[in-house]
Design brief:
globular, about 400 residues, 2 strands
Length: about 400
């Protein structure tokens, strides 16, 4: 077995090519666009399958340097924060609390399902924890953090491999089912989004050239400057928070810094140009998200799933079915049965099975076709990137005690 380590710049360049490959496939297969499958997901999965072929048939293991991916995550969430005005946050107050309660409830349901399925299948003790909210709602980061604890507590030697495999499959499934679920709800209920409102991320597919807010190098540089300043402050504040014993992800800190900046600086300096709800910020956020997602999916080592057999597939199928039923029968009605609720439903697939960027990518793919959903992009990242991590940590601490 020979190993190819792809360096950073080449990995970033390949990710762009992967995105364009996905965009072309979506254009050639209209069903992919109709069901709101993100271009980065289509291309990323294709690239992951190609690396799997290289591994299985040519004994070549390909791995990518992912430093640029982590930076893109900061740009993306900072952009979300810069778009979060107080008026939007206040409007999202009640929906935010409802979505938080729904997510917390599903976190418990997800762990109960994994424990029940593991008991029926006769899986080793401790494996249920890794097939529940640890890997699905928590994702790869939570899995890596908790796998050693599960391994030590239950003597499960391959805990990390099981957790990573579950998180990887969950990410793939979340990327594929979010758009179709939203499309089903939109079509069934005759919903549509506002056509006169700018998208939070990206530009709609039928956007016209000549818009009064057309992007120029000045607007892009201005937006990048503000974004970089927010990220730099986020880095500094993150160090202070860590020294205080509070473990918050860096992208959450950058998100909060951007929210504070966008709701204070324009008031203190009203004549200062600010990027909130501009096309430049939407494009930078869209670029960051798509390349991040392409890099995440193309770097999946699918061969790591082969040794875990049918049990993992069965448990994940149960979790996926439960998530879809919960979204259609609980989340969508509770969030108001309107267009925003349908977009949030697409995002909830990402929360429950994949990761926050996957949730945002699902929602972005829907809004590019059907119109903006501002409230969805405000409340979902706050729920999935901050509060739910704290709740998940508390639940996991109880399960492994």
């Amino acid at each position: 077995m020979s190993t190819i380590q792809v360096p950073g710049l080449l990995s970033f360049t390949i990710a762009i090519l992967v995105f364009f490959a996905g965009a072309n496939l979506n254009r050639l297969i209209p069903a992919l666009t109709r069901w709101s499958i993100p271009e980065a997901v289509t291309g990323g999965l294709l690239a992951a399958l190609m690396t799997l072929v290289a591994y299985e048939f040519f004994d070549i293991e390909i791995s990518f340097a992912l430093g640029a991916r982590d930076m893109l995550l900061l740009y993306f969430f900072t952009g979300v924060g810069l778009n979060a005005r107080v008026s939007d946050l206040l409007a999202g107050g009640k929906p935010f609390l409802i979505l938080l309660a729904l997510t917390l409830a599903f976190l418990v349901i997800q762990n109960l399902l994994s424990m029940g399925a593991s008991e029926v299948l006769g899986l080793p003790q401790g494996m249920a924890i890794l097939l529940g909210s640890t890997s699905l709602i928590g994702g790869h980061g939570t899995t890596i953090a908790w796998a050693p604890i599960v391994s030590s507590r239950f003597g499960l030697t391959n805990a990390l491999e099981i957790g990573i495999a579950s998180a990887t499959l969950g990410l793939v499934v979340a990327s594929l089912v979010g758009g179709p679920v939203a499309q089903y709800l939109i079509t069934r209920n005759g919903l549509s989004g506002p056509r006169d409102e700018e998208l939070t991320i990206g530009v709609s597919r039928d956007a016209v050239v000549g818009h009064e807010d057309d992007v120029s190098y000045i607007s892009l540089l201005r937006t990048l400057l503000v974004t970089n300043i927010a990220i730099i402050i986020g880095y500094a504040l993150h160090e202070i928070i860590l020294e205080a014993g509070i473990n918050l992800p860096l992208f959450v800190v950058c998100l909060l810094v951007a929210i504070v900046m966008t709701n204070s600086i324009p008031l203190l300096a009203p004549r200062l140009p600010w990027p909130t709800h501009t096309r430049g910020l939407a494009l930078i956020s869209d670029l960051s998200l798509n390349v991040f997602l392409a890099m995440s999916l193309m770097s999946m080592q699918l061969w790591g799933l082969s040794g875990l057999g049918l049990s993992l597939a069965i448990v994940l199928a149960v979790q996926t079915l439960a998530a879809i039923v919960y979204i259609i029968l609980v989340v969508f009605p509770a969030m108001g049965r309107n267009y925003n609720a349908a977009v949030i439903s697409a995002g909830f697939c990402g929360i429950s099975l994949g990761a926050t960027p996957t949730a945002i990518a699902n929602m972005t793919a829907v809004t590019k076709i059907h119109g903006a959903a501002t409230i969805a992009f405000i409340i979902l990242p706050l729920v999935s990137a901050f509060f739910i991590d704290l709740a998940n940590a508390a639940v996991l601490g109880f399960l492994v005690r």
